[in-house]
Amino acid sequence: MAGKQDSPTAAVVVGPDGIVSGWSEGGRLLLGWTAEDIVGRPVTDLLADPPPPPGFPEGYGAGPDPTGFILLRHRDGSTVDAAVTTHPLSGPDGRALGHVVTIQRWGRRPVVADRAFEQSPFALGVYDPELRFLWINASSCRVIAHSEEQVLGRKYREVLPEFDRTLFPERDDKPYTDALAQVARTGEPTRLITVFRPRGSDYANAWATSIWPVRDAGGAVRAIANWGFDMSAEYWARQRLLLLNEASGGIGRTLDVIGTAQELAATPVPGFVDLVSVDLFDEVLRGEEPPSGLPSAPGETIKLTRAAEHSTKADAGQAPGVTTPVTHTPGSVAARCMAAGRSTVELSVEPGQGGEWAFGPGLAADPAGWPPDNPVIDASLAADGLTGRITVPLRARGALLGVVAFSRVERPEAFTADDLILAEELAAKAAVAIDNARRYSRERTTALTLQRTLLPQGLPNHEAVEVASRYLPGGTGTEVGGDWFDVIPLSGARVALVVGDVVGHGLHASASMGRLRTAVRTLADVDLPPDELLTHLDDLVLHLAGDLQPTGHFQSTGESGATCLYTVYDPVSRLLTLASAGHPLPLIISPDGRRTPVSVHPGPPLGIGGLPFEATELELPEGSLLALYTDGLVESRERDVDQRTAELQRALNHSTASLEVLCDTVMDAMLPRRRTDDAALLLVRTQALDPHHVADWDVEPDTAQVPRARKLAVDQVDAWGLEEAAFVTELVVSELVTNAIRYGEPPIRLRLIRDTSLICEVSDASNTAPHLRRARAFDEGGRGLLLVAQLTQGWGTRHTTDGKTIWCAQNLSEAERH
User: Given its phi and psi angles, is residue 705 left (phi above 0), alpha (psi -120 to 50 degrees) or beta?
Assistant: First the structure.
């Protein structure tokens, strides 16, 4: 290292045989050897170990650059890193006489440059390729807490073993010594930020460092140099910004209160704190409005629920999804924060000299000012294993939702005012997300409750079909949709099977679904064919859409439109009649496991208007399996609808006698864990009515045939063992057949069906529909249908393509049904 004056230059004369023949005074000043010591000795005696490249000094001066670098031996045993320049000597005849060698200490520079490097506020250092210290300035000495004399010639890892590890292995940080070794190995410069705790300090510093190789004239790496400066304040400010950026994408990803609380607890660990706990009011967890006030009576505690807790320790914290009750007494820090609406910072350290906080060497002074009453020195934190805690009330839209505590356990750094700002930013972001989740949870619960109320609470028992159903709303984060299904008993032992889907989500979709389901039941009661029913339903949706048009300053509450599949199954003929308004067609699996194709094309969705609907009839074997479903069951981002429909068919082929079990199997197989839409499934196994339970006769259009019709009906009822129903049956057959003969058109047909009730039907070719009226005292007619209505449990009219059918039904006892 250069002294306070320029280093001397040695001049040496070396003969062709390598023997020193001349030695200057500069040689004595530089290396300590006198002319008497050196002259006459081989020049190689000046070389230190390890030896220089072969051929010294012959190898020097052979090229255009006569300067090389070499390690020489001082008389006192030390070594001197020197720059050597050789100049060949020749006689008058051109004969080589040897060399003149000039030697200077390597790095010779003016004194002011020496002082500039020595006094630099940046930490400077030079190391040999083995990472031994060659030189460091005063700033480096302060950083590593060693003097230059203590480290010269020693390896970096021996002096600073703490630099062989990183404080943040989870960030894939590289130890500083690895970076030095990499530059020595590759010869490529590098830059990095190193976070470490200086020796004798419990506080982490961040240093920006540049490392580069120092090469000789031949390009060989002879040393490694570095410089660095303390950028702790900038580094930690950047880390806070990164954490806030992470929180922007990490908090509030799901519309779930507990899930959002868990995101708040996990995001700051371990980059900011070691332990986070989130306590919320029970009302918030239930989606209700938070309490308007806090307990104020002395000794009264505030009851909350710990919705989330996350720690750096694997065995600490709270399991995800688990909640535990907690209480905060009125005098506790959490209670005071909630009551005052202000945050509190607790530190377990005392203020340092001059009123400044002891943030540790290298950390910049706290740039932000503390708010009133902060920070609070609380020595009891150490008993709890904490070095500091920030408690922040969770407030959103003027409502208090709970409280969050950010604690440091492992790291000893005291919180700064900037840390408080960060904690409040995290809490504010999370509070809005939690309140959004609470509001969504309330609306979703309301919509789901409404929808489940509007859906069938229990499917009716019917002799024609065995049914089972499932409805699952979309996963958390999605609104309730408008999927629905229904099973509607019809006249003649038939049953209507319906499934539909209202466009949109939320309360509007649930309410629209309820209106449509009611409309379908009303139209089904009229006993319209499927295609005609969908036509009337389409008109209804168009009217509803018109009612939802915005007027004045009011906006439409949602989309209008729906899809619907309406089917009718007749157990007497085993005919399935169906029509679709934009809805997926049912899957029909025959008893032998084969899929029955459905040739009808789905019509347009409801609400389009002006387009016809097509109906088709299929004759099904007894025991056929029908699957009616909404698109939420088969839609997928990974596979197309045809692939998903094939998967549904495979799921339906599971051999099981229970439709309830099959429903669960299908839902588990088809629905992913994270659903984006609701799904409805209606499984139906068809049954056929015993032919012996059906009797029908043609009736001649002559009133003289009425007694014959009465007798045929009574004989059949007696044959079925329903003697108690014979009297009523005789009366209603007489009235219905008489009306058909008088007011209807041939052909006329009488049919009796023994099902869960005794059904009497009279069909004719007329389209005129009878209606119930009250006859006056002297009227000769008008009492027939009134009598039928009073004697039976139900009657009605259904229109067919060939005319109409008047029917009535008598209830049968449980014993009479079999």
Answer: alpha
Q: Distance between CA 793 and CA 756 in Å, rounded?
A: 12
Distance CA 380, CA 376 (A): 11
Cis peptide before 175 (omega within 30 of 0): no
Identify the pLDDT of residue 254.
80
Number of H helices, E strands in the chain: 20, 32
If one compares 284 and 560, the residue with the highest pLDDT of the two is 284
* Of 816, 800, 703, residue with least CA distance to 761: 800
Question: Which pLDDT value is given to residue 4?
Answer: 38
Q: What letter represents residue 817's amino acid?
A: R
Q: Which residues are 349's β-sheet partners?
A: none
Interatomic CA distance for residues 176 and 194, integer angstroms: 7
Tell me the pLDDT tens digit for each residue of 529-577: 899 999 988 888 887 666 655 554 444 433 457 899 999 999 999 999 9
Look-up: residue for tokens 């790496």? 221
Amino acid in position 65 = D
Question: From CA 256, how far away is CA 440, in angstroms rounded?
Answer: 8
Question: What is the pLDDT, as a whole number, of residue 708?
Answer: 93
SS3 673: coil
In the prediction, which pLDDT does 689 show?
Answer: 87
Three-class secondary structure of residue 687 per DSSP? coil
Whole-angstrom distance, CA of residue 278 vs CA of residue 258? 10
> How is the chain split among helix, strand and coil, in percent rounded to 5?
30, 30, 40
**Which letter does DSSP use for residue 725 in this model?**
G
Give me the DSSP letters along 439-502: HHHHHHHHHHHHHHHHS-SSPPP-SSEEEEEEEEPPPTTS---EEEEEEEE-GGG-EEEEEEEE
Closest CA to 2 of 143, 171, 99, 134: 134
pLDDT at 786: 79
At residue 716, φ and ψ (nearest 5 deg) are -70, -40
**Omega of the bond leading into 691 within 30 degrees of 0 (cis):** no
CA distances from 300 to 294, 335, 341, 391, 742 (A): 10, 11, 19, 20, 85
| Residue 404 amino acid letter | V
pLDDT for 480: 58
pLDDT value for 447: 65
pLDDT tens, position by position, 601-623: 888 998 887 788 999 999 999 99
The mean pLDDT of the chain is 80
